[in-house]
Amino acid sequence: MASVVPVKEKKLMDVKLGELPSWILMRDFTPKGTAGAFQRGYYRYHNKYVNVKRGGVAMVLAAYMLFNYCPCYKELKHQRLCKYH
């Protein structure tokens, strides 16, 4: 038997379409609640992408591509604006 979770404690992805209006009304839209939501989002992003314990190959590859793209941007921008007939 599945345990019943109150609508207020559900994550947005777990809320069914019929429960969505009541879920939105239960959110805290005060300035303190909104600031807390932004703070949680910032910390989630920071811990996932910035404060990593061990970077993977994709992270190194993305940094390599970015640092090699920056010096060539001026030439690439000119080529982007050219018309080919």
What does this structure look like?
- The model has no long low-confidence stretch (mean pLDDT 83).
- The chain is elongated.
- It is built from 3 helices and no strands.
- The longest helix is centred in the last third of the chain and has 25 residues, at 57-81.
- The protein is mostly helical and 85 residues long.
- Helices cover 60% and strands 0% of the residues.
- The protein has one domain.
- One of its GO terms (biological process) is proton motive force-driven mitochondrial ATP synthesis.
- Keywords: Acetylation, ATP synthesis, CF(0), Hydrogen ion transport, Ion transport, Membrane, Mitochondrion, Mitochondrion inner membrane, Phosphoprotein, Transmembrane, Transmembrane helix, Transport.
- It is a single-pass membrane protein.
- It is found in: Mitochondrion inner membrane.
- Pfam families: WRW (PF10206).
Distance between the termini: 67 Å
- Mean pLDDT across the residues is 83
String of helices and strands: HHH
Task: Give me the Rg, rounded.
Answer: 22 Å
Structural class category = mainly alpha
Question: Any idea what the shape is?
Answer: elongated
What summary fits the major beta sheet? none
Helix content: 55-70%
Proportion of residues in extended strands: under 5%
Poorly predicted parts = none
How many strand segments?
A: 0
Number of helices: 3
Question: How many distinct domains?
Answer: 1
Organism: Ursus maritimus
Main location: mitochondrion
GO molecular function, one term: proton-transporting ATP synthase activity, rotational mechanism
Subcellular location: Mitochondrion inner membrane
